[in-house]
Write a structure and sequence with these properties.
Layout (H helix, E strand, L loop, with lengths): L1 H28 L17 H22 L4 H9 L1 H6 L3 E6 L7 E5 L8 H11 L1 H9 L3 E3 L17 E9 L2 E10 L7 H31 L10 H10 L7 E8 L2 H8 L1 H17 L6 E4 L4 E7 L4 H15 L3 E3 L2 E3 L3 E8 L6 H19 L2
Antiparallel strand pairs: 1-2, 1-5, 3-4, 4-5, 6-8, 6-11, 7-8, 9-10
Amino acid sequence: MIFVFILLTIITSMLIFILYRGIKTVKYIKRLVSNKERFSVLIPPSPNKIVINRFKSILYETAIYCLENEKEKNEILRIFLEHIPNFLRSDSWSFLLTPNKGPWTFLTWSKNLDFVPLEEIAFELENEGENIRTVLESNKSFFIKNVKENVMWKQKNPFTVSWLGIPIKIGDEIVGVLNMDWFKTKRFTKMEKELAKAFKNEIEKVLTKVFGLNELFLNYHLDPLTETYNRKALEDYILNHPTVNENIALVFIDINDFKTINDTFGHMIGDQVLKIIVERIKNSLKTEDLIFRYGGDEFVLILKNINNREDAEKITNKLQLIVSDTILIEDYTITSSISIGYCLLPQETNDFKKALAIADKKMYIQKKFSNR
């Protein structure tokens, strides 16, 4: 009887352990998987292993999405980092960019922080945030169970009780800290600590690869001489924007008599002239404006927030004026000029291809007129 009792006790204990482990596994896996996937509760795999593998697959799905949709670096970073808070279920979260040169700023945050003065908080953290400095210097996650009892906590936040800071490193550089806040005392389990560490490592690996691929992709779209976008980039841009609803000016530029400059001074000098002209044009544009090298001495600009012809004329006149300034290279004094045509979208057309043809035609008319 004693043997039977002991055997039953062992079997019961094993079943309880397996059941507990299975429920715990399913609890965490459900946060990451779709309802279509099913897992056995009675014979579960390692909880950490199954969750991390699923997390990896989500990251690679995200990587493909970002590359296929040509997302910018900050957007890629934002999309990736949202996966961790979604899993750990914090009450609020934010990601603080911490560049060595330049001010700290919040890149992204949860909706319940929309009305919080994040610019002021970022400034305070840069100057007094000992908790953030600890994360950056150690390159390790840092958890504070009760911020009110921790001398490092300087933030004037009445809601946060528990806080976790996770440094995010891409390549050899820590780009920022993921802040996760709980509004009540958080009991951070051993499993959650291990998963948080694993998620940090996996995200950093994938982000490093994605940023590398993104750099190659951007280089594929860049003109090596002028460091502007190339014609292929313009074609892809037009393909991704078949119609336009915002106010834009598409500008077609041709450098007058550029062949003469090459023939007179040589192609090496001609290349330098081209780079100087492009740099002058770039310096006259807004951050959101785009410049493409369409051909040898032809460029296309996409200027945002151009509401009328007066706005367009003001910019095109400015461009013609700055390009006409004398260029000094070695012992040579070179003068140049440009012909410009533009099309307003969507006033004249909401189709980029038609706009390109209209701007090209107007440029040709101006060029023909100036040669008389």
